Amino acid sequence: MARSIAPLFLLVLLFWGQFFHVHAARLNSLVFPLSHSLSRSQNANFTILQHLKELSLHSAVRRHNHRHPPERRRQQVSLPLSPGSDYTLSVSVGAPSAPTTVALYMDTGSDIVWFPCSPFECMLCEGKPSYPPLHPPLPPPPASRQVACGSAACSAVHSGLPASDLCAIAACTLDDIETDSCSAPCPRFYYAYGDGSLVARLRCGPLALHGSAAPSAAALRLQNFTFACAHSALAEPVGVAGFGRGPLSLPAQLAALSPSLAARFSYCLVSHSFKQDRLLRPSPLILGRTEPKPSAPDKYPPFVYTPLLHNPKHPYFYSVGLESLSVGPNRIRAPSELRGVDRKGNGGMVVDSGTTFTMLPAETYTSLAYEFDQQMSRAGFQRTADTEERTGLRPCYFFEDRKADQRSVPGLALHFAGNASVALPRRNYFMGFESGRHRVGCLMVMSGAEAAAEEEYGGPAGTLGNFQQQGFEVVYDLEKKRVGFARRRCATLWEEMTRA
Known about the structure:
single chain; 500 residues; alpha+beta; Cathepsin D, subunit A, domain 1; 6-stranded mixed barrel; 30% strand; disordered N terminus; glycoprotein; protease; signal; aspartic-type endopeptidase activity
């Protein structure tokens, strides 16, 4: 979300008196399951072609939202909007004796935790896989309370507005404002994101995360956690667990209580290709991730790290520098806007768990697609314009998915700053599927916008989507300000880390 963030010292005030409880013998790491929406989809008629069309559209929407003109960027939160692209985390709120459990999108591109509270109205939600919900929203948890207008949390969610202004909006008297004695609740706030929006109130109360039955993944319970209750939304019926860098995100609130748990977190997304039978095991989310032992490099390849870039305008994003891309033996140098962030906060590539497909600036994408098409054409593959029209992806080819065909697809690697090269498995950037009577395959990377239109926007230049992150453990090292990537068998990693 593009907003001013409260100064760091406000965190001390924001979380003062908060405490946590972990039912575990050790605190160095905790593991929680992430569920892919496709694994719980009830719409058996939703084809891969429909998934790809929806996901390409919504990846573009999310990219557009990240790059709104400055005058429209003030109160926006980036959220996953489409079926089949999101990963959810199970959270319970309220007193342990009567908890309310909700499934929230795990999103590194936003920095607030929110969920629907009754009475809840969701406009333009008909037809979404998660609507109507199996269990209707419950009232705000009785164990929670509204956040005061003079709090640091209220200022943070209202884009850094001073407490005096917020308390005036909340109808406090001048005398109460001058004496800092106003106890009125924080005013409702409005978020706009992509093709949706919401109105919510801040609340504070108990929140718990539940993992597997293994002791190493036991429940994590936080008291006085600040979250948002939404009573109305447009096109978004599911809440979000924001893991961004802002003061209201889940890692930030956890860091005030247990720095060792929040200093490094990672996730490992199980490869799926939009097939339910590949999502039988959850994707592990690891809080307090420790560095794997170097004694078994074949089993646990080491992380390659790229430094996080400081973004003065969007400090909540995990921005990194993309230096170049390799298509087969040929390297494409990335433009300066992908390699760094300027003083206005424009540029860099955001590592985002809530966007499906990687988005590149128009010029960079055109160079990538041209080079990819040249090598595919030399290998004898024929373009299919019909599939490109039906999916929103390009280039697409007639592709039988035989071993010989697979070997002919050129490799794709991303080269980040800090000498961090990430060679993608073929399934992460070129996917084969049925289209009518034919087998086809498409490049699963997208153009962010037309070149002429991009000049009117600011914000991140590119986005690394979750489809390209499959089969990698992605670690966010907040202490050393870097992001790391390592190839993993994510289902196996889940089993090993949750084994009693």
